[in-house]
């Protein structure tokens, strides 16, 4: 018998999310488990028991604060909303309890680089946008306590990345309610954040001379999001910066839209992918600010981009725990891909995309009919976004990017997998290692992996490149060194036309010794059956066109076909051996069970490799001969 969805999950997945009312309902459903996990005083939320590098009190404060990214916008426009009213009062109580020194639920004094600063930003934002709910009802001594606790952010060190905006939002919130704040802190941080922008005008998540991380912090849910918040909240007092931020927002639109697929999926790339539909938060900020939209963007297009992305996640039961809470993971619960700062409460950063609830029903965003992905963007074989060192394509119904030259500025879990792969896909996601032995544990999809031991147990993949360039025809060239004496130069070539379901790679490897090489395609779901409740591993095929589902290996190619679509690789020089590699369970963001088509090579001294990597998502199976 198929499993019955728990009522808490069904309340979310059955929501069509087409209207403002739908969004209010789904916000309530998303917050029911959070509200139910609140402490007596309301200041802390505990949804689970997994750990982080920061303390448990900060993690529980995180659960309180991240809900505000959804609650505060709604309460700013509808403070007496009947569905949320009970929650509203408990969050106000929690703010008081968490800032009461000596109280049972006091959030604690801060230290340098404290996680509490991250969560303070949501409180500062709430004061700025909904003072009638979160400030005016407080007693004088409660206001003083809240003010004093928040001011700690001005006397401690913050990391030199998107965190610097948290100090701005806290002081902006305090300023908006007439409390003690520091204008100098606001101005100093805004000046510092200018160093994030390169000569091309787009930010990385840190000083642009040393940080080359153009992840979702740099493209959507952090810096572009916060700058448009600032433009809206401080536009009158700081019109010069507001104008600059809006111009940057307009310039960002044609780039960030490339990260999204027509079905609402998004290309998972970089860290913090457990924040899920926070990836579309930039579109919510565009609407909140009332940005002047360039062609082909309309309010209907923006609405579609935002709501489709939220639906892509909220209509998947596997995203949620049985109580309806968001799990740590992506398309399903997954700790392998998580960060060491992801608590059980962290995924509620996703509620940034609910910023549009601050807009009334009469706003053009809500009045517009939802429009599909702009057709003219699908008519190009590829789009170069040179500042990010990425080339995007939607060819043959597959949204993915070729990537090179990105790296995060600090040591982090699975940095090579999250930033260094050759390609990232909205349909097939990416994989992370589960262990350190063999290809099965390394799970090196969409990358060239090299091994210098005779058994092929330990593998090295690209994390940092020495140089990278993109030509006008979309070819990305990069060079890296897996070991000091081995050099690899790779050319990644995008699809030649919109109907081509493939891209091409060429590698030039120079090594003074024998090494093994694995040149891999996209990981793909590895089971088949009439339903998720009746699946078995895909069978071995006698030929590449002998079945609707299966795996096929030949001397120079590898293919996997399943309900998720088609993934394969072909050796263009006839030097490699095709293998459909089983990957460890839960190594991939999209599916807990995957295989990886790849080509195995033995490299002696100097060698050229060339391959075609093809992939067709399930909805486009008609393009494949077995479909």
Automatic annotation (TrEMBL):
<dbReference type="InterPro" id="IPR049349">
    <property type="entry name" value="DUF2264_N"/>
</dbReference>
<dbReference type="Pfam" id="PF10022">
    <property type="entry name" value="DUF2264"/>
</dbReference>
<feature type="domain" description="DUF2264">
    <location>
        <begin position="389"/>
        <end position="622"/>
    </location>
</feature>
<dbReference type="InterPro" id="IPR016624">
    <property type="entry name" value="UCP014753"/>
</dbReference>
<dbReference type="Pfam" id="PF20938">
    <property type="entry name" value="DUF2264_C"/>
</dbReference>
<dbReference type="InterPro" id="IPR049237">
    <property type="entry name" value="DUF2264_C"/>
</dbReference>
<protein>
    <recommendedName>
        <fullName>DUF2264 domain-containing protein</fullName>
    </recommendedName>
</protein>
<feature type="domain" description="DUF2264">
    <location>
        <begin position="19"/>
        <end position="372"/>
    </location>
</feature>
